[in-house]
Amino acid sequence: MSLRVGIVGLGRIGRGMLRANYAELTSGRFDIQVMCDVMSVDQVAYLLSHDSTYGNPPFSLDCDGNNLIVAGKTIHYQRVDRRRALPEEDSFGHLRKYELDVLFDATGTATIEDLRSIIKHKVAKKVVCTTNIAGCDLSMVYGVNDNQYDPARHHVISASTCTGNALVPLFSILEKHIGIDYARIITIHPALSDQRVLDGYHATSHLGRSSAVSILPTKTNVAHSAALVLPALQGKLDSLSYRIPTAIVSVIDLTANLSRDTTREECMELFEHHARTDMAGIIHCDYGAWGHEKASIDYLGLPYSAVLVMNHLSLSNGRHLGLSLMHDNELAYCSRVIDVLGVLNRGGL
Ligand SMILES: NC(=O)c1ccc[n+]([C@@H]2O[C@H](COP(=O)([O-])OP(=O)(O)OC[C@H]3O[C@@H](n4cnc5c(N)ncnc54)[C@H](O)[C@@H]3O)[C@@H](O)[C@H]2O)c1
């Protein structure tokens, strides 16, 4: 049975999730009933059909002034701004008539109280969100801990972050076979839509500096995201992020002290093995093109959570591992969100 899904927040990830849903199956893998944002419906249609990063959508699109017609089917649209309501209010009560199985929140502004209110007021049976908001019932990284999903206990589920989805599968392989004593993670991340093109106000002041002219160091909670899924890593990770003036494809550079001696060959074989077996489609080992290095844009549109740049894998003194990986921070993440919905569909609601 196909899940009945609502999407709140039609920014990069909300629209990307819609694309991913129709990229898998032209009639849509899941039955998206309703979508909401603060924008007008024609503005959503405009942004869906003119995407500077991905081009035309993989579905036909029209707008009748009230709703969107996606691949020939009407998807209801509601203009909402949750910030105008208190979490204890039944602010999404008007969505109850759609009998949603899952409400997907990609606003980035919801609090845990907002998300619990959806469940409490029976607007949807489950909520899936796109960050690690404190208090979620489960942080799910598909391919690593999706088998922990328990419909009786898990109602508000985080699909972790793009960086969490990229790193945690690799950490889980290393933890299973070798062990990690300490790792330092550097993420080099494209600008995000809450940054400023020119200097201006931002709640995090340095993200208010022009995104077009600087590399901006900022915090990332990827260490926390990883430890939520792999608790043995708690206290063993440090992380830092640099926002750069590109639109898409994130790079992660990792150095790790391993718990036992190993070889470069053993590490390569481990990643190759898992990329062929239990993590096929999630991690991918890349060797460049005919001996040439690829540019980050060459990874645009790849659905893997992490593409390991194998030529950059280094090992020194038997225990110091260097890893470099790339990922399409939008499309790959949205593909995992679809996988998370698949887990809920199979596991029950
Ligand atoms: N962009 C990425 O690479 C990426 C990857 C993984 C996860 N995420 C996470 O996904 C979330 C969204 O990121 P994004 O890049 O799509 O941001 P975005 O700013 O492009 O989109 C957010 C959308 O939500 C809408 N919105 C915000 N508050 C709202 C409210 N109160 N009511 C109704 N609509 C509201 C906005 O109008 C906007 O269209 C963030 O939590 C982000 O951390 C982003």
Automatic annotation (TrEMBL):
Record domain Glyceraldehyde 3-phosphate dehydrogenase NAD(P) binding: where: 3-162
Keywords in alphabetical order: NAD, Nucleotide-binding, Oxidoreductase
> What Gene Ontology molecular-function terms does this entry list?
glyceraldehyde-3-phosphate dehydrogenase (NAD+) (phosphorylating) activity; NAD binding
Q: Which Pfam families match?
A: Gp_dh_C (PF02800), Gp_dh_N (PF00044)
Kindly list the residue ranges recorded as spanning the membrane.
Answer: none
What is annotated as the active site? 162
- The UniProt site entry described as Activates thiol group during catalysis is assigned to 189
Annotated signal sequence range: none
- What Enzyme Commission number(s) does the record list for this chain? 1.2.1.12
- Family, per the entry? Belongs to the glyceraldehyde-3-phosphate dehydrogenase family.
User: What is the recorded name of this protein?
Assistant: Glyceraldehyde-3-phosphate dehydrogenase
